[in-house]
């Protein structure tokens, strides 16, 4: 019996699963693209989709801006396999690259796209909080270099208040309650989604590769705070950095070169 390719179903479920943690995810992407439309000419828009997963930003961007081109980078072989399987090169408008942002030389892995001043925009969603503070600051410096002189970085991410405090606790409690409600009404969680991936023979090899990426205990930080991100962006050379959109601790941070 033919086993149908799992990409489409798993990506639809990825989007639904991410929506458990970011209930306003569609509105968030809409706000990112609105900002982009204001800041950059839509013609020949070249965008770096940083820590792209299966390509949520790239797919939406290429639909929304017919003249745009995207370079989608991530370290996870499973998510890259899904994205490549589902969208391929989108008629030459989409390039995928396996890149670990912990590698200081990652821009060189982008080939000609790794040259300074290549991109109009760097977009990222729900990803950079995975990086430890030093790697995050270095990533912002590299993005600053990769951007054109009037380029923009838009990071939609978990960007919490200072490490401790009632405001942070309140946001966390409200977010937890929303997540619990979604899962209680049948939504698939992150863990359940990865269990579905583990059951897919077509992804077995990629899943084996993935198991070496984040050895148990390697992510023992709590995630850099909003203030850390803002300072790191300014220190990376951006002229302005601040919140453009917010839902509890999910924010879009915009940085203008
Ligand atoms: C929650 S997913 C978000 C993916 C996608 N941007 C989205 O919103 O659907 C976080 C992503 O960050 C990527 N990531 C985490 N650490 C990374 C690193 N060191 N280098 C590259 N990608 C990384 C993961 O592989 C994963 O794809």
Topology:
Elements: H1 7-21, H2 25-39, E1 46-50, H3 56-64, E2 69-74, H4 77-87, E3 94-98, E4 119-125, H5 133-146, E5 147-158, H6 166-184, H7 190-198, H8 204-210, H9 226-235, E6 240-247, E7 250-256
Parallel strand pairs: 1-2, 1-4, 2-3, 4-5
Antiparallel strand pairs: 5-7, 6-7
Helix pairs in contact: 1-4, 1-7, 5-9
Provide structural commentary:
The protein has 257 residues and is of the alpha/beta class. The protein has a single domain, classed as Rossmann fold. Helix content is 42%, strand content 19%. It contains 9 helices and 7 strands, in the order ααβαβαββαβααααββ. It has helices at 7-21, 25-39, 56-64, 77-87, 133-146, 166-184, 190-198, 204-210, 226-235; strands at 46-50, 69-74, 94-98, 119-125, 147-158, 240-247, 250-256. A 7-stranded mixed β-sheet has the order 3-2-1-4-5-7-6, sandwiched between helices. A hairpin with a 2-residue loop joins β6 and β7. α1 crosses α4 (77-87). The longest helix is centred in the C-terminal third of the chain and has 19 residues, at 166-184. The chain binds S-adenosylmethionine. S-adenosylmethionine binds at residues 18, 51-53, 56, 74-76, 79, 99-102, 125-127, 130.
In summary, what is this structure?
The chain has nine helices and seven strands, in the order ααβαβαββαβααααββ. It has helices at 7-21, 25-39, 56-64, 77-87, 133-146, 166-184, 190-198, 204-210, 226-235; strands at 46-50, 69-74, 94-98, 119-125, 147-158, 240-247, 250-256. Strand 1, helix 3 (56-64) and strand 2 form a beta-alpha-beta unit.
């Amino acid at each position: 019996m033919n086993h149908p390719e799992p990409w489409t179903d798993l990506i639809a479920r990825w989007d639904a699963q991410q929506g458990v943690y970011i209930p306003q995810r569609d509105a968030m992407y809409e706000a990112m693209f609105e900002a982009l439309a204001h800041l950059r000419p839509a013609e020949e828009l070249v965008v770096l989709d940083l820590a792209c997963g299966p390509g949520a930003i790239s797919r939406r961007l290429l639909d929304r801006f017919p003249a745009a081109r995207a370079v989608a980078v991530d370290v996870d072989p499973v998510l890259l396999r899904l994205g490549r399987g589902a969208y391929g090169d989108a008629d030459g408008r989409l390039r995928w690259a396996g890149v670990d942002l912990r590698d200081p030389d990652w821009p060189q892995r982008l080939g000609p796209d790794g040259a300074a001043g290549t991109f109009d925009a760097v977009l990222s969603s729900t990803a950079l909080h995975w990086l430890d503070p030093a790697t995050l600051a270095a990533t912002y410096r590299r993005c600053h270099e990769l951007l054109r002189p009037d380029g923009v970085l838009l990071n939609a991410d978990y960007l919490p208040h200072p490490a401790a405090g009632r405001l942070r606790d309140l946001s966390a409690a409200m977010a937890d309650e929303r997540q619990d409600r979604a899962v209680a009404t049948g939504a698939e969680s992150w863990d359940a989604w990865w269990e579905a991936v583990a059951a897919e023979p077509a992804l077995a090899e990629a899943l084996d590769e993935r198991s070496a990426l984040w050895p148990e205990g390697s992510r023992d930080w709590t995630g850099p705070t909003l203030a850390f991100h803002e300072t790191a962006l300014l220190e990376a050379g951006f002229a302005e950095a601040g919140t453009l959109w917010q839902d509890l601790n999910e924010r879009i941070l915009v940085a203008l070169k």
